[in-house]
Amino acid sequence: MQRLQGKVAIVTGAGSGIGQAIAKRLGCEGAKVLINYRGSEAGADETRRAIEACGGQSVVIQGDVTKMDDLRNLVDTAWNKFDSADILVNNAGLEIRSDFWDTKEEDYDRQMAVNLRGPYFLAQAFVRRLRDAKKPGRIINISSVHEDMAFPGFTTYCCSKGGMRMMMHNLTVELGPLGITVNNIAPGAIATPINKALLEDKPKLNALLANIPLGRLGTPEDVAAMVAFLTSDDASYITGATFLVDGGLMRNYHEQ
């Protein structure tokens, strides 16, 4: 069953990892997908081919979520190509490790720009078009368990995700009257390229797995399944919530 038939979705960072899985899932659920990528053109093309294999439609578009012109272009392209943009998935993210006392200003600024400023202004451009067209819509932010859970060595990343949580809370109230729902998905430890170093460090990986009640890392497809639900009609009365996709990590985690 294609639950998203007739819908148009914008997915940022859809050339790899979680974003790629989300774009594939939405495309195979019937949505027309705008596949955004910044650097991985080959990955974005792979996403497009997977959607086409499901009989879906998509457009690949390069764009940096830290650039205002690129953000506006994403929304304009969706409307120009498909005459709508019903779903926005703010997935693109950046994580840079540094002890608090060593954090560089440029690293702080870059993480905030990718993880919070970009989603804020892309959502703004998305909402303006929906408001003018008097159409409802869905915004899904791919946040992190670290919107609430401490992560020593990644204070800037945690600040950006905490900001995303508060943005979601506020937009829930502001956009509800327009028929636009806003929810966050908070992945835990997911097997993606961003975790390559962890996956190759067996002692650290095993220590992490010991903190996950389900005893395994999540997959990008686990996250994509939640996105598909939240963008479907089955979730029409759900807004203002963060959904953990973490195998129970949040409830069991403690620093070693």
Tell me what the structure shows:
- 46% of the residues lie in helices and 14% in strands.
- By secondary structure, the protein is an alpha/beta fold.
- It has a single domain (8-244), classed as Rossmann fold (3-Layer(aba) Sandwich), CATH 3.40.50.
Rounded to the nearest angstrom, the distance between the terminal CA atoms is 45 Å
- Shape call: globular
Helical/strand content category? alpha/beta
The number of distinct β-strands equals 7
Question: Which structural traits does this protein have?
Answer:
Rossmann fold; 256 residues; seven-stranded parallel beta sheet; 7 strands; alpha/beta
Question: TL;DR?
Answer:
By secondary structure, the chain is of the alpha/beta class. The chain has helices at residues 17-28, 41-53, 68-82, 105-133, 155-175, 196-199, 202-210, 220-230, 249-252; strands spanning 8-11, 32-37, 58-62, 87-90, 137-142, 180-187, 242-245.
List the helices and strands and how they pair.
Blueprint: E1 8-11, H1 17-28, E2 32-37, H2 41-53, E3 58-62, H3 68-82, E4 87-90, H4 105-133, E5 137-142, H5 155-175, E6 180-187, H6 196-199, H7 202-210, H8 220-230, E7 242-245, H9 249-252
Helix pairs in contact: 1-2, 1-8, 3-4, 4-5
